[in-house]
Amino acid sequence: MKILIYSANYAPEPTGIGKYSGEMAEWLAAKGHDVRVVAAPPYYPNWKIAEGYQWPPYRRESLHGVDVWRAPLWVPSNPGGVKRVLHLLSFAASSIPVMLRQTFWNPDVVLTVAPAMACAPVGWLTARLCGATAWLHVQDFEVDVAFQMNLLKGKRLKSLALGLERAVLKRFDKVSTISSKMADKLRQKGVDNEAITLFSNWVDTAGVNPLAGPSSYRQELGIKPEQTVALFSGTWGNKQNLLAIPAAARQLTHRQDIVFVICGDGVMRPELEAACKGLSNVKLMPLQPKERLGELLGLADMHLLTQSAEAEDLVLPSKLTGMLSSGRPVIATCRQDTELAHVVSHCGIVVAPDDGAALVQAVVTLADSPERLKELGGYARAHAEQSFAKEHILGRWLVEAERTTLAAGVVLSEHEAN
Questions:
Q1: Burial 97-118 (b: 16+ CB within 10 A, else e)
Q2: pTM of the full predicted structure?
Q3: Most exposed residue of 4, 103, 286, 288, measured as fewest CB within 10 angstroms of its CB?
Q4: How far is the CA of 385 from the CAs of 17, 325, 360, in angstroms?
């Protein structure tokens, strides 16, 4: 098949949507499909266009068998509120000529990835112009998140934005998302049940395994063999409720056997660094090379998955799959009725988002029970293998894409015959 992926974020971005869009495109290309990608230059999570991509603004490159077309976008240094909206709109606008050019290529499927929802109309139009299946994949409900976290305000603006989103969602042939709760949200937004499909984020279970011995990062960070590591690894953004971690660490300074490691980068860096100042039991690390992901996740004795209450069920954190695959238990801050809680309850501890004391107690409980750590870690690995294996999830998407495209072709042929 000819598959066109339209995603603002793409490889070589090391985390988030760019990571998944890149892995998907490369997997499809390796299976023999003809894959093109229209994307922005890499900028996330540092919110700075990567070295070597500043000029020219439009470019074409080949990455691991994928034909990648880049269109420029504006990247604000402080991406909040209106600035974030303009940031997304800038790519939607600049990529229009690039997307329209792809109609001459005649793809079979046009897969648009949201965020950015602003790109959805362009993706839909491109698919319609060339008779391709119009597929929208929703990684998070950015409109809802923006208003719930007060990045955008105003009842009229919210009503208008949600109305436009609803109108766009209903036009696609297929709309996929990463969790069953988010699929329910699509139904609430008016998407036909027949159009909705579950397309979870995945993990390379062969590449991220429980380590046979201590992670090499322990020696690099000066962590003693007897110390227990509570690790957060991911984007330092507003949705992550990161300040809960140094707050917990501050209450556990007397526990010399517990170390908190926070790895990543993002817009919350200044606030996080300030909150961690003077805490000897916290170690901050920059983003690590993709090749060392298994070693990094294996550094943890337990993973910390903190997130804002406002973002619950509007996004299922993509970092969860790697945590589970590493064979380590997870402490998640979320309500008990969320999908994240449902997953973590079998392989970790769930605490309320704003309950700092409960987070501290959860860390202590696991640190003081090596047997429980091992047991929950085993459950985590089993769940990753059963539910999030890369080959299974991407293979299932491919089957559905081929089925949908074939069905659309049959309908078109019958229409032409009549």
A1: ebbeebbeeebbbbbbbbbbbb
A2: 0.89
A3: 286
A4: 21, 7, 29
Provide the 3-class DSSP secondary structure of residue 39: strand
Looking at residue 418, what is its pLDDT?
Answer: 47
- 365 alpha carbon, distance to own chain's centre: 29
* Confidence (pLDDT) at 54: 92
Match 């069953």 to its residue by tokens: 180
Distances (CA, A) of 183 to 194, 197, 325, 382, 384: 11, 8, 24, 24, 20
The pair of structure tokens assigned to 64 is 């691991």
Contact 404, 332 (CB under 8 A): no
The pLDDT assigned to 314 comes to 67
Q: What is the DSSP letter of 266?
A: S
The pLDDT of residue 406 is 80
Longest dimension (CA), the chain: 79
Residue stretches of the chain with pLDDT short of 70: 311-314, 408-418
Please answer whether residues 392 and 280 qualify as being in contact, where contact means their C-beta atoms are separated by less than 8 angstroms.
Answer: no
The count of other CB atoms within 10 Å of the CB of residue 243 is 16
| CATH 3.40.50.2000 describes domain 2-202+389-417 | yes
**Alpha-helical runs (H) found in 298-355:** 319-325, 339-344
| C-alpha span between 103 and 297 (Å, rounded) | 42
Question: Does 216-387 match 2-202+389-417 at the fold level?
Answer: yes
| Domain boundaries defined on the chain | 2-202+389-417, 216-387
Residue 84 token pair: 């974030």
Secondary element (H or E) of residue 372: helix 370-387
Cα 30 to Cα 226: distance, rounded to the nearest angstrom: 43
Give tens-digit pLDDT for 105-124.
Answer: 999 999 999 998 999 999 99
Q: Between 3.40.50.150, 3.40.50.1440, 3.40.50.2000, 3.40.50.620, what CATH number should domain 216-387 receive?
A: 3.40.50.2000
Inter-residue long-range contacts of 53-62, CB under 8 Å, 24+ positions, other chains counted: 57/94, 58/98
